[in-house]
Amino acid sequence: MAVLYLLLVSLLGGSDYDQAVADHAWTCQMISEKVWPADPTIHCPEPLETLALNTASQ
Predict the structure, then answer these.
(1) Rounded Cα–Cα distance for residues 38 and 28 (Å)
(2) Which DSSP string do the residues of 1-58 spell out, in sequence order?
(3) Do residues 42 and 28 lie in contact, with contact meaning Cβ atoms separated by under 8 Å?
(4) Mean pLDDT, rounded, of the chain
(5) For the whole model, what pTM was predicted?
(6) How far apart are CA 29 and CA 49, in angstroms?
């Protein structure tokens, strides 16, 4: 019974983390496309295109 419980918790816990990561990526995409206003409490990495341009210009 305990093994079944641990298996169930581990499967569901990973799913929650994956969903949180996907939600964060989607939020950052909406902010970078200017669909949503920038929020200083949400840290979004620079898009890869921007990083490539900054590296090429140096």
Answers:
(1) 9
(2) -HHHHHHHHHHHHHHHHHHHHHHHHHHHHHHHTTSS---TTS--PPPHHHHHHHHHT-
(3) yes
(4) 77
(5) 0.56
(6) 13
